[in-house]
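Deviations from the work plan: none for this task. Representative record:
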Amino acid sequence: MRDLILSLLIISITLSFNLGLVQPALYLKAGENMARFFSLLGLRADLLGEAWWAVVETFVMSLFGVASGGLAAFLLAPYASPLIVQPRLSWFVRAVASAVRTIPSVLWAIFFVILVGPGPAAGALALALYTATYLVKLFYEALETVDKELYDSLRAIGLRGLPLALALFVHVRRQVVSHVLFMLEYNVRTATILGFVGAGGVGYYILQYLSMLDYAAVTTYVVATIAFVVSIDAVSYLLRTRV
Amino acid sequence: MSQSQFFPTPCLEAEDLYFSYGEREILRGVSIEVKPGDVVAIMGRSGSGKTTLLKIFAGLLKPHRGVVQVLRCEVDKPCFESVRPRIAYIPQSLGLVSGATALYNVLLGRAPRHPFNFVFGLWSRRDVEEAVEALRVVGLGDKAKMGVDKLSGGEKQRVAIARALFQKASVILADEPVSNLDAETAAEVTKLLVKPSQDGVAVVAVLHDQDIAFEFFKRVYVLKGGMLVEM
């Protein structure tokens, strides 16, 4: 462990020289900019209502993403598990899901903005697609953690296909619920920046006010976003403990 | 009475089975015939191949040599899939779906025959009543809606037996069904396990306890050196 920490330290110091981070002038300038920036910050009470609706829109996008993506993952994950289908088919489904997952959701958002035009619909579709492929992976991995003897006892009586997958899902339902909540948290965070590419949500408004250099408005939206994300995390935590 | 009732067709036949894990040969020419209503115990030391043999009977493992027929169908033939719903297999860990109720676990016994009803939870009233009845037979009629995780070890064994009863299996294969139970509970559970034999169900169980084997099982075999020897 000591070797690892030492290695990380050496790498950090070496690269900080390469990146031009060891220059006192840089930090002096950063200090001046920060002072100027903070003087422009503030909260705009007149925007609280607008910020609230932007947050609600972001939540709706996230919730749609996790609901429809989760549903798709429930149906697709069994086809990605060699416990349920032929290994060749499971390999193919895994490969497709993995390929889609490789592309970040913000890029999918750009793709859907091109397809359906700017707005929350594009963001919601991007989140749904990404959620589906991510949950496919988490779900088939959960299925593979099932006790082999349970699987054997169900296969021995002739259970197969989707009914078999359903029985196994019930067995790992804690993991499944945990993964769905994890994706809801992920979607909420991601949805806040999808607006930067025109895909709706609070990010769209933040970008607009940033371009007008209205930092007080930006701060109002950022504070609303933080309150929203923290609330979602808290609700998610409570739900997890009750499953 | 017809001749077939005097000499019923075997519901499980294994002939000259060989199986090995790598270089280690675990079964060497095992043959056995089990008829409807037979109650057979298989004993042997740990690692002697008892569970492997039971898994071969259940069609979960393929023997390297030899033939197994269950209900007149060879285990690696396509017809075996249609035979599976008539085989109940109770593994050592019981194969219960955790987080689900005792009733759900019993209903699972007929899920292969009624997959649509199982997936959408649309069981007929008759199916549900029969499942509750199976639980009542094993003494758990009042615990149908209880989660299996909240049941004791002996009660979980009973749920697994209730599933086999509800399944209307012709062959019950049980792997150490009374391990980890006290003597009194083990005797009660074994009684329930062998009871279906009165209705013509064949019961094959892997056991460690000699007293249980000789008290409740008509035929007792020992797996020794890869061979099955009747005691």
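The CA atoms of residues 13 and 22 of chain A lie 9 Å apart.
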